[in-house]
Design a protein that fits this description.
Elements: E1 2-7, H1 20-27, E2 32-37, E3 50-51, E4 61-62, H2 64-72, H3 79-84, H4 86-89, E5 91-102, H5 105-111, E6 116-121, E7 126-127, H6 129-134, E8 138-141, H7 151-162, H8 184-188, H9 201-204, E9 247-248, E10 251-252, H10 262-280, H11 292-303
Parallel strand pairs: 1-2, 1-6, 4-7, 5-6, 5-8
Antiparallel strand pairs: 3-4, 9-10
Helix pairs in contact: 10-11
Amino acid sequence: MRFDLVTLFPGFFEGPLHYGVLERALRTGLAEVHTHDLRDWTHDRHRTVDDRPFGGGEGMVLKPQPIFECVESLNITPRATRLSDPSAARESVILLSAQGKRFTQAIARHLATLDRIVLICGRYEGVDERVAQLLSDQELSIGDFVLSGGELAAAAILDAVTRLLPGVLGHEDSSRYESFGEGDDALTASSPENCHPERSPQNRHPDPEHREGEGPASPRDQPQRVPRSTHASGGLLDYPHYTRPADFRGAPIPEVLAGGDHAAIRRWRRHAALAKTHANRPDLLAAADLSDDDREFLATLDDAP
């Protein structure tokens, strides 16, 4: 995967690119990132990249000329081809803007299937609209708020997409069973026995190294399995997580997590995820993959005083 970042501040990315998942992906060659200073495509001695908006108004607007020349120098697939045949192009030019469509985990998963992404970082009052109309194939925002520039948004998208690339994380399930993920059926279509992990042979015959309440000795024992005590999120927020000690400052873990009943743990985690989503992001419930049991549990939350 190649990322090209078009920005006024290429030095901004020196920090994010040298830590954690991004650093490992770059070091192992699973991803590459190239920054491009927008001022290198200006033609005046002041290296001017912005101008006043037509029609008046506050602030300055990024000019189209340096952005177009910069992106065109990257030999990216023409926009018409990207829009008419996205599967063949496998490239995307994205304008980061407060006016864009909200960036989601589903979009991150799609972008992770591409070979190349160009991220145009907006600045000042905005970017000349012809960049969105004639150059980029999508306009994205990372949330309903305004940033001083697109660099922070680019770093967020860079991280969200890179961690989904095969081989970047230590275990593939780390990016599959988390907030905003797909449902059980979508993730286990290629392996039907995973749809009901509590009934799988592994659950009927525990691993020799298994310690009560902790699951298998190693996640790699089940490389293609849904974790047997876990539902895929199906568009919900992730369930709460706990680790040792079992009692911390008078706050114990839920008893079910130490009981060794994987079906009960699985059900508790699902209900906990529903409760957290209901409390923090109720808007996600409308599009979530919900079972009858899920809806019955949500009804108890709605009826609670």
